[in-house]
């Protein structure tokens, strides 16, 4: 298993994930980032905060960004 870091990219910069978590693949890390983004969006709807400006940058232990999960990509708008 590899360790991936979910850095939070916002309009004001990047908040680095210093702990990371282990996943069997980049796809598994992306699925977890999508779940976390949906949860954060839900919290923001209730608090009236901006919804779609943020994204998770998924990086390896070496600091290489291997995927990006924009918050707007996980929203279910009907």
From TrEMBL:
Domain DUF6894 residue range list: 3-71
Family matches, as InterPro entries: DUF6894
Stored Pfam families: DUF6894
Superkingdom field: Bacteria
Protein name in UniProt: DUF6894 domain-containing protein
The organism of origin for this protein: Pararhizobium capsulatum DSM 1112
